[in-house]
Amino acid sequence: MSDIRRALRRRTLASLAGVAALAAAPKTLVAATRGAGAPDRFEAVDAPNAVPAALRAALEPLRNRAVLVNFWATWCEPCRAEMPALADLDAIETDLALLTVAVADRDGDVRRFFAAHRIDPLVVADPEQVIARAWAVRFLPTTFLLDASHRPRHRIRGELDWNDPAVRERVMTLVAPPNDPTPH
């Protein structure tokens, strides 16, 4: 099989997998993704059992900063729609970093998407979905909010309007360091 046919087959299968995941998703999950802002969609989560090496390496330079880890793909329309607002949030909030995980995607497609939108987030390739499986991501987009110690604290499944002031306020409240009760 030629490289072109193999690439087309892989892209078709990835697209079909996305459609199948959406069709198989619980109706409440699908309905939740249609809300514009919905700061109440931040689900508390426990840390995953494992942090794959590629993700751990990408997080290392972001030490002592809260991080939004966004699982997405160029073939996922809701992912494409929310990415510019995520990049804007990353640019505006200095205490917060954006790390994207390109799930079952091709490097060239990812580079072209970011170049076309003139954004440059940190990207971790996850073509075999190793990171997505380790973090139990079954729906795209899915975004995790990590605290400054890089422990996952909240998850948002589905598209979110990251430009919504209520969403931004909720994010910044969740990443704010706890008040130090000891007097100095």
Automatic annotation (TrEMBL):
The keyword Signal applies. Keywords: Redox-active center, Signal. Residues 1-31 form the signal peptide. It comes from Aromatoleum aromaticum (strain DSM 19018 / LMG 30748 / EbN1) (Azoarcus sp. (strain EbN1)). GO terms for molecular function: antioxidant activity; disulfide oxidoreductase activity. Gene3D superfamilies: Glutaredoxin (3.40.30.10). InterPro entries: AhpC/TSA, TAT_signal, Thioredoxin-like_sf, Thioredoxin_CS, Thioredoxin_domain, Thioredoxin_ResA/DsbE_sf. The keyword Transcription regulation does not apply. It comes from the Bacteria. This is Thioredoxin domain-containing protein. Residues 32-176 form the Thioredoxin domain. It holds the Pfam family AhpC-TSA. PROSITE patterns: TAT, THIOREDOXIN_1, THIOREDOXIN_2.
